[in-house]
Amino acid sequence: PLILRRDPGTTGIWAQLGLFVAFVVVAASLFYPALATGPRLDQRFAGYPAAGSLNGIDWMDYGTLTVDGPDGPEDIGFAGDRAAIDWFNENVEGSPVIVEASIGPYRGNGSRIAIHTGLPAVIGWDNHETQQRYAGPIFDRVDDVEALYRSDDPDEKMRILSAYDVEYVVVGELERHFARDGEQYATPEGIAAFDAMAGTTLEIVFEHGETTIYRVVGAPENG
Asked: Phi and psi of 168, rounded to 5°?
């Protein structure tokens, strides 16, 4: 019978060739993070700090994100929100309820104030919430928060704030410029109504750039 024998020399050559090809593929894959990380950071976070920073929110001082605006994509900044986060962490004790735009996870830095202060919000990442509990009350909160930012009726705003025991209202670039289905999240009329309420049912406790924090007058101090 014919017996096929492997040539040890040939086997060794193919093994070495396979190792060489694997080495080239792995080495080539390492070029992407080395060459693409800098340009990618320059594209979205111009002026990013030198490597070594462990502060996960430093990017908010200079970075921008692109969100859907009422007239198309818009770049928004978060320097005012970063200052607001620092203000909350330095000046507010307890667990007062805040309200900020609810735009869902993974886009536009949604729920950024609640995430970085630990304060409870009326609604955060609604998609995640519906995975853990009945969806009905979650969507009620989503609708109420949108109505709060869009309504120009002070009585309607106070009804919503009272229903959820809200003490602080956040209006930043995200609320001012983000749009869902072409409709601005916080309408100019809705924001103007907040300003008109300041001095009566609301008071302005913080301002930085386009970020304003209103406190509900008469709310229990610091939750």
From this structure: -130, 135
The single-letter DSSP state of residue 220 is P
CA distances from 157 to 8, 12, 154, 193 (A): 83, 78, 5, 9
CA-closest candidate to residue 150, choices 183, 108, 198, 107: 183
The pLDDT assigned to 18 comes to: 86
95 in any annotated domain: yes
Contact indicator for 113, 81 with CB cutoff of 8 Å: yes
At residue 218, does pLDDT exceed 80? yes
Domain range spanning residue 135?
A: 58-216
Q: CA angle at residue 52 from 112 to 76, to 5 degrees?
A: 30
Report pLDDT digits (tens) over 110-140.
899 999 999 999 998 877 787 788 878 889 9
Residue 70 in contact with residue 182, Cβ under 8 Å? yes
Tally of domains in the chain: 2
Q: Are residues 96 and 178 in the same domain?
A: yes
Per-residue H/E/C for 154-196? HHHHHHHHHHCCEEEEEECHHHHHCEECCEECCCHHHHHHHHH
Q: Is 20 helix (H, G, I), strand (E, B) or coil?
A: helix
Nearest to 66 by CA among 77, 58, 82, 57: 77
